[in-house]
Each structure stands twice: as C-alpha cells, then as structure tokens.
Specification:
- The complex is a heterodimer of chains A (217) and B (218).
- Chain A is an alpha/beta fold and 217 residues long.
- Helix content of chain A is 15%, strand content 32%.
- Chain A contains four helices and 15 strands.
- Chain A has a ten-stranded mixed beta sheet.
- The longest helix of chain A is centred in the N-terminal third of the chain and has 10 residues.
- The radius of gyration of chain A is 17 Å and the shape is globular.
- Chain B has a single domain, classed as Glutaconate Coenzyme A-transferase.
- Chain B is built from six helices and eleven strands.
- In chain B, the strands form two sheets. In chain B, strands 1, 2, 3, 4, 8, 9, 10 and 11 form an eight-stranded mixed beta sheet that branches. In chain B, strands 5-7-6 form a three-stranded antiparallel beta sheet.
- The chains are: A alpha/beta (217), B alpha/beta (218).
- Chains A and B meet through helix 2 and helix 3 of A and helix 5 and helix 6 of B.
C-alpha cells in the first residue's frame, strides 16, 4: 500500500521543473527526489555547502568529508560544487533557490509557517529553515494533513513562527492547497476523500477551486 | 618566517577558563576533533562557544557539552545532541539560537570589519527580540551585529607551513569564516605540506589569518 509520505512526496515532485535549484528539508521532503518525473533534472542544494548533491552513499564507499545537511554521507554529481556557509546562505537568502520543500508543525492562511520549535518540548533550533523560507522563490510545505487527527493547517498558527507569510503551496496526503492573498484555495483532493472530510480536518476556511482536480496517483 | 607549527598541548595555552571560542564544523564534519579532545583533557570551564551546532553526544562540540565545560552556546541547531537540550532546560547551559545564515553573516561581519548586516531572516519571529529593525525601500530588515572570538579552532584538510588552508568537500562550512573573526586562529590540519605545494588558486583561507597549525599526522 502507498503510504501518506509516498503520496505527498510523489505529488510534490510534480511541482518541480527541469533545471530547478531545489533544497529539500530533512525527513519527508528528502523523499521527493525519488519521484521526479521522467526528463526532469534538478540541482539539489544542501545548506552545509553543496550544489549538485547526489545519492546517499553505499555503505563502505563513503567520503567522510562529504555529507548532507542531515550529516548523512552523500555523493556529488558531475558539475556539482562545494562552498562555505556564507556562500551557501547567499544562494538561499539571495533568491537563487527556486524551490524549497519543508515539513511543518503548523501553517496558516497567511502563509506563516511554524516548523522549528514547540516551547518546552522540542527546541532543536531553526538551523537554516528561517533563511530558506524567507529566501527561496517558492516554498512548498510537505506534511501530513493532521498530527494524529489534530489539524496542522490553521487560520492562525499558535506555535512560534519560523517565517511570516512566505508559504506558497501545501501538499498533504489528502489535498493540495494554495496560499493566496484571499487565503487557502483547495486545488486538488485525493481520490479516497471528500471536500467535506478535508474541510473537517482543516482548521481554516478553504475556498474550493472552480477547477478542483483529483490528486494524481 | 615564524614557525606556526605547534603541539596540541602548546595550543591549549590559548584556551582558558571563560574563553570565548569559535569552533568550525557542521554536525562535527570539519570540526577539529584533536582540539576538542585536548580541551576535554585540559578541563577548562565556563567556555562560550560560537558554532553551527553542538555535534552529537560523543563527537565534535558535543564532547565539550558532555564534559559540562560550556556555559554559553551561540548556535543555529542543537537538535542532534539531546544533552545540549537537557543542560539548556536545567539552566546549566545558556543557548542563544541564531538562524544559520545570520550566524554565518555575523561571523563574516566580525572578520570583515563591518558594523553588522541587514537581513530579512527572522522578521516576525522570536529572533527579532532585542534587535533593532530598519526599513529600506519598504522592506523590513533585522540588524544583526558582528560576532568575534578570542580563539577560533578550525580544521583544514591540507595546510601549508605559511598557514594557507584548503578544505575538502563539505568540511568548509563555517571554518573559512571563523578564520577571519578571532584574535588567535588555530587550525588542526589533516595534512601539513611545504610552502609551494598548495596551488595558490586552491587556497581558501590565506595564511595571514592562521596563527598556529597543529596535527598533520593523519
């Protein structure tokens, strides 16, 4: 059976265009590169200082000096490059990353994202997330629709913000939702759900697109 | 020319109780481990550490955290070392979390003689707290002030005797920035070569920034 994560990763992959420079967050977003449509080549950026990041290394063939932002050993593709953290964030903050795909704790109808802290419980630090969300040309949130039934897509976030008003698109296992100046627009729903169910699991108003589509499998 | 190569023990003379250090590396990749081990052995206390992260429990800066030698940590991410979070919650360790790109620019500003940098990162978030904001061309920016340290501990893949450094692959990260922003810069070299053996085109940190070189055995 296809898992929620696979459904989300496959759908996000369809948003990427040939030649895009893309930064994939740790976790679910990393899976996106497994589902790139045929003929679509992207350049992966990692904030610790790589463009043209390749696959995870086969055990025993690691270069100890070459890791991704999650400290996993990776390869670099032909045509790739390494650089320091100032250059890396010039790429990120300066608008040279076409798309960033990140997870979320909460996201709201103004495009404000909470992804880096649950006060008193989870305080890992923002790492590069704040710069990525502020600087990337397009911000896609890849997340399960709810956290064990509790809505993550809200009218207003109640966790500390990672960045204000920067999210463009939300992809869940149930729906594709665009963030517009008028709030959330429901663009696609999964085959096995209904508009009512999606609305029930979303704690904000959803404007149903006049061109509502079924999410491609 | 002055000899820059010293022993690790000699390098430790520059690390004292209460020292303010910058330590290179990203999740311990590019962190000078031999200097971390030496600091643990020396047992100095109340250190202030500026670094991207706090490594893991038993690698990189995590070694200093586990030995409870750090009083204040300025970093962007501590999520892969549970001990850092534990000491922060208990109040033993003060942690100042800074967005990674802002941390890089604060260090760069410190080394480049700038009074600070203007960044849109952190606007509307808790990062704003206590910082000045400025509006230019209708866009709001945070003023992030420069960071400097007494000693920078960095790691170079190949270092020549003049202190010119080449960093392999993703070991660059914060190392070349920190090399510019401290009073004393000590590089732990994976390999030390004679002057002239490194192609000047490939040098990432000019030797004038480096005060001392340790290591070179591996």
């Amino acid at each position: 059976m296809t898992t929620a994560k696979e459904i989300i990763a496959r759908r996000v992959a369809k948003e990427l265009k040939d030649g895009d420079v893309v930064n994939l967050g740790i976790g679910l977003p990393t899976l996106v590169s497994n589902y790139l449509p045929e003929g679509i080549n992207i350049t992966l950026q990692a904030e610790n200082g790589i463009l043209g990041m390749g696959e995870l290394c086969v055990q025993g063939e690691e270069d100890v000096d070459c890791v991704n932002a999650g400290a996993q050993h990776v390869t670099i593709r032909k045509g790739g490059s390494f650089f320091d953290s100032a250059m890396s964030f010039s790429i990120i903050r300066g608008g040279h990353v076409d798309v960033t795909v990140l997870g979320a704790l909460q996201v709201d109808e103004t495009g404000t994202l909470a992804s880096h802290i649950v006060p008193g419980k989870m305080v890992p630090g923002m790492g590069g997330a704040m710069d990525l969300v502020v600087g990337a040309k397009k911000v896609i949130i890849a997340t399960t629709h709810t956290a064990k039934g509790s809505p993550k897509i809200l009218k207003k976030i109640n966790l500390p913000a990672t960045a204000v008003g920067k999210v463009n698109l939300i992809v869940t296992e149930l729906a594709v939702i665009e963030v517009t100046d008028e709030g959330f627009v429901l663009k696609e729903i999964a085959e096995n759900t209904t508009i009512d169910e999606v609305k029930k699991l979303t704690d904000a108003e959803l404007v149903v697109s006049s061109n509502l589509m079924i999410m491609p499998k | 020319m002055r000899n820059k190569i010293i022993t690790v023990d000699e390098a430790m003379e520059y690390i004292k109780d209460g020292s303010r250090l910058m330590i290179g590396g990203f999740m311990s990749v590019g962190t000078p481990e031999i200097l971390m081990d030496a600091i643990v052995k020396k047992g100095v206390q109340n250190l202030t550490v500026i670094a991207n992260d706090s490594g893991t429990l038993d690698t990189g800066i995590g070694k200093l955290i586990s030995a409870k030698q750090v009083k204040c940590l300025i970093a962007s991410h501590i999520g892969l070392n549970a001990e850092t979070g534990k000491q922060m919650t208990s109040g033993e360790l003060e942690v100042d979390l800074v967005p990674q790109g802002s941390l890089a620019e604060k260090i760069r500003a410190g080394g480049a003689g700038l009074g600070g940098v203007l960044t849109p990162t952190g606007i509307g978030t808790e990062v704003e707290r206590g910082k000045k904001k400025i509006i230019l061309d209708q866009k709001e920016y945070l003023i992030e002030l420069p960071l400097k340290a007494e000693v920078a501990l960095i790691r170079g893949s190949i270092v020549d005797k003049s202190g010119n450094v080449y960093y392999n692959a993703t070991t660059k990260n914060f190392n070349p920035l920190m090399a510019t922003a401290a009073d004393t810069v000590i590089v732990a070299a994976e390999k030390i070569v004679e002057d002239g053996e490194l192609d000047p085109n490939c040098i990432m940190t000019p030797g004038i920034f480096v005060d001392y070189i340790v290591g070179g055995e591996s």
